[in-house]
Specification:
InterPro entries: GlpE_sulfurtransferase (IPR050229), Rhodanese-like_dom (IPR001763), Rhodanese-like_dom_sf (IPR036873), Thiosulf_sulfurTrfase (IPR023695), Thiosulphate_STrfase_CS (IPR001307). The protein has about 110 residues and is an alpha/beta fold. The chain is about 40% helix and about 15% strand. It has a single domain (about 5-100), classed as Rhodanese-like domain (Oxidized Rhodanese, domain 1, 3-Layer(aba) Sandwich). The chain has a five-stranded parallel beta sheet with strand order 1-5-4-2-3.
Amino acid sequence: MSDFSRINVATAHQLWQEGNTAFADIRDARSFAMGHIPGAVHLTDASLSDFLADLADAQPVVVVCYHGNSSQGAAQYLAHQGIEPVSSLDGGFTAWVHQHPEAVEQS
């Protein structure tokens, strides 16, 4: 059975800059629209199967929530679906926007 890791904002930002990692944002639609990591997918129950189908083999996934708590459960779920590597962003989007306000987009 696969597991997930927890990563800090600095590591996530480096992965984001490299461009090979999928970012899955599990916050509510309004929060996502108001600001999210550029390129992140708004992951919901409705979009989950498309998200999984679109992932490249062995493409890393970072799950993002508000503060890094709910993302751990979602990351564990994805790991149990065979997605690896998968990580949860410690501090969530709140920590991301605090450290990298320039790396936020609205939809």
